[in-house]
Amino acid sequence: MTQTVSLSFFRFAGPLARLWALGMMGAARGPLARVPQIGFWKLCGSGTGVGFTPLPNTAVYAILATWPSHEVARAQVAQAGIFRRYRARATESWTVFLSPTQARGAWSGRAPFTPGPAMPGPIAALTRATVKPRIALQFWRRVPDISAMIGSDLNVAFKIGIGEVPLLHQVTFSIWPDEQAMAGFARTGPHAAAIRAVRDGAWFSEELYARFSVQSDSGTWNGASPLAHLPILEPA
């Protein structure tokens, strides 16, 4: 079986719903850990704008989880009580299902993703880093240029910045129609300059980089599936 990663996003409207979502950053840990067949999982908040900013977006939260197969992932995200509770409170939710194809580095001391063969179709990229506190200001000075660049890239189908701890634990996630489109963004402009600065200055105390084949999705984001115009070969 091929490992599947689910990344679920939830949008909350109104102060009470947002306060509930903030509280669930702690309260959801127990229920998530008890979901049958769940592997590695993380609860995350998000940034404002397209997400790549240090300012938190109190309306959007995310759950990342690994599963032993695509079938198990879809069934548990649809049926497990903790996911249903989130959807019941949210005004909108969307989950993308992914199969890892490359992974290097660690997340909270673990290697959470088990790479398998790539599938035809769109790809996703995820980077996760623990920013050294003394470097945080330098790091976030770089982010506005990267955010503007990715926000204007017509190739990117979806992009967001999420994280476990504001300013210090950061995750970037994006979906692209193919590897060529993603590589064109990564190797040029502010993003490439930031990567060089990270390597030269050892800004991170821990980092992980992973690529995925996009398997399928469920729900909507901003009223539609972000994958609606991309060719998806859903696993049998």
Account of the 3D structure:
With 236 residues, this protein is an alpha+beta fold. It has a single domain (4-219), classed as Alpha-Beta Plaits. It is 32% helix and 35% strand. Helix 5 (136-152) packs antiparallel against helix 7 (189-201). The radius of gyration is 17 Å and the shape is globular. Mean pLDDT is 83; it is low at 188-194.
Given as residue ranges, the uncertain stretches (5+ residues, pLDDT < 50) are: 188-194
Q: How many domain units?
A: 1
What portion of the residues fall into strands of 2 or more residues? 25-35%
Instruction: Give the strand order, joined by hyphens, for the main sheet.
Output: 1-3-2-6-7-5-8-4
The termini sit apart by 12 Å
| Second rung of CATH, namely the architecture | 2-Layer Sandwich
Helix-residue proportion: 25-40%
Which keywords apply here?
single chain; 8 strands; alpha+beta; Alpha-Beta Plaits; globular; 32% helix; eight-stranded antiparallel β-barrel; 7 helices; 236 residues
Blueprint of the fold:
Blueprint: E1 4-11, H1 15-27, H2 29-33, E2 41-47, E3 56-67, H3 70-79, H4 81-89, E4 92-105, E5 123-131, H5 136-152, E6 158-165, E7 169-176, H6 179-186, H7 189-201, E8 204-219
Antiparallel strand pairs: 1-3, 1-4, 2-3, 2-6, 4-8, 5-7, 5-8, 6-7
